[in-house]
Amino acid sequence: MALVSSRNLSAKLALAPALAVILICFYGSIVWTAYISFTRSGMFPNYTLIGVSQYIRLFSTPRWITSYGNMFIFGGMMIAVTLVLGIVLAILMDAKIRFEAVFRTILLYPLALSYIVTGLAWQWLLMPTIGIQNLVRSLGWQDFTFDWIVQRDYAIYTLVFAAVWHQAGLIMAIMLAGLRGVDAEIWRATRLEGISKPRVYFSIVLPMLKPLVATSTVLLAIAVVKSYDLVVAMTGGGLATLLICLACSSSTTRSTAPISGSHRRPLSRCSSLS
């Protein structure tokens, strides 16, 4: 008994420095941030308490309200599409296809990149003057247009494309681990009963994976909040700024009219997304 207590004490002592760092650096920072939000702090800390005045001023700013709404629009689409795509990819991988390890590596590769790299890569792909549109037109299809990144009503979807490409591999890996953990007896029983595979997945397997779906949703929600890097990399700090730059550059090379008019105005709905 004394030996067990001694081992427990040794383990606690070994973990104590790490726990202290977590408590001070992580939770301490959260408490400190919450505290200074009730003060006059701006660029530098100012510990004069002013209550909720900072929050009142923040939520009375139209740009903040627009940004907040854009975050929910972007987040809702990104989470939904990534979950569906990740589950579909996991089901395909669970079929034990050839070169599965290669495909897993390819799908997980974007996760090894930072949001900065992802954003720049997708900006190059979607920019009308050098991206997909320019490539297709150089092959002879002069009427082809794919300039969503400079269109008011579609620019936000380009951010969703990039974010889904970045995160889909992670969701695929999580769901694939869950699928590989399904008891083989369940599959055997459903085959004996003659139940189709789609029904097995929808009625039996996916309900069993609810904890993994919940975990994936939380991870994606965190990625949405941390998507500032992606937005800055793709838009240079704001979609409105990017639209003006791309409109000026593409007007000299495109066969169509320069970007102007109500359907090509700087993006008001998404300009504050960053």
List the helices and strands and how they pair.
Layout: H1 2-36, H2 53-59, H3 62-94, H4 100-108, H5 115-126, H6 132-138, H7 155-180, H8 184-193, H9 197-208, H10 210-225, H11 228-235, H12 239-250
Key words describing this protein structure:
274 residues, mainly alpha, MetI-like fold, 2 domains, 68% helix, flat
Describe this structure in words.
With 274 residues, the chain is mostly helical. It is flat and about 70 Å long. Mean pLDDT is 79; it is low at 240-274. It has helices at residues 2-36, 53-59, 62-94, 100-108, 115-126, 132-138, 155-180, 184-193, 197-208, 210-225, 228-235, 239-250. Helix 3 (62-94) runs antiparallel to helix 10 (210-225), helix 5 (115-126) crosses helix 7 and helix 5 (115-126) runs parallel beside helix 11. It folds into two domains: 1-60, no CATH class; 61-264, Orthogonal Bundle (MetI-like fold), CATH 1.10.3720. The N and C termini lie far apart (58 Å).
Biggest beta sheet attributes: none
- Please report the total strand number as a whole number: 0
Residue share in helices? Answer: 55-70%
Q: Provide the CATH top-level class of the largest domain.
A: Mainly Alpha
Overall, the morphology is: flat
Instruction: State the CATH architecture of the largest domain.
Output: Orthogonal Bundle
Q: What proportion of the residues form beta strands (DSSP E)?
A: under 5%
What is the structure about, briefly put?
By secondary structure, the chain is mainly alpha-helical.
